[in-house]
Amino acid sequence: MSVSCQSAIPSTSLGPIDLSMKNNCIPPIVNGGYFAFARIKGHICLVQVSCDTPISALATVDVKIFRHEFITIFRLSETTTLHPADISIIEPLEELHIRYEEDNETVFLARELMGRLQKLSEGPRGRLPRTGRYSMQFGRPR
Q1: Positions of the region Disordered (predicted)?
Q2: Which of 6, 63, 78, 97 lies in disulfide reach of 47, CB 3.0 to 4.6 Å?
Q3: Which domain holds residue 110?
């Protein structure tokens, strides 16, 4: 008499699957789309938004997120699907200012875009407050 048992833990030919892993699902495929500066969970990033993403405030967004590597060079960091509350597109970028090498997932940005990215990354705390014409006249006793 033969008794067979099946484990409740899913497995592959390489062993059991770790269900606690963060990336236990297949990342979305982002073929084509537009590049943009976006705020993702408070950080300014270069992203490629999938052209298959519907234009809706309620739809999830499939993006490729690129990390800054050197001067004007960015490399693919991850491909993911984000909840609309986690991403805000700040500025779509014109293709003529971008060179994208799909074979090695590298993006080269024009220097003008790097200047804009730096200003966006600084935010309000990086800028000095402007002083009005009369601010010093009344602020200091003579």
Answers
A1: 122-142
A2: 63
A3: 24-119
Total of domains in the chain: 1
| Environment class of 93 (CB within 10 Å of its CB; exposed 0-12, middle 13-18, buried 19+) | buried
Q: Does 126 map to a domain?
A: no
What does the alpha-carbon distance between residue 23 and residue 111 come to, in Å, rounded to a whole number? 35
Helix, strand, coil percentages, rounded to 5, for the chain: 20, 35, 45
Tens-place pLDDT, residues 19-57: 344 444 666 666 778 999 999 988 899 999 988 777 777
Q: Can you name the residues that pair with 101 across neighbouring β-strands?
A: 106
Question: Residue 63 burial (CB < 10 Å; 0-12/13-18/19+)?
Answer: buried
What is the spatial distance between Cα 94 and Cα 113, in angstroms, rounded to a whole number? Answer: 10
Total H helices, total E strands in the chain: 2, 9
In a domain, 128, yes or no: no
Is residue 111 assigned to a domain?
Answer: yes
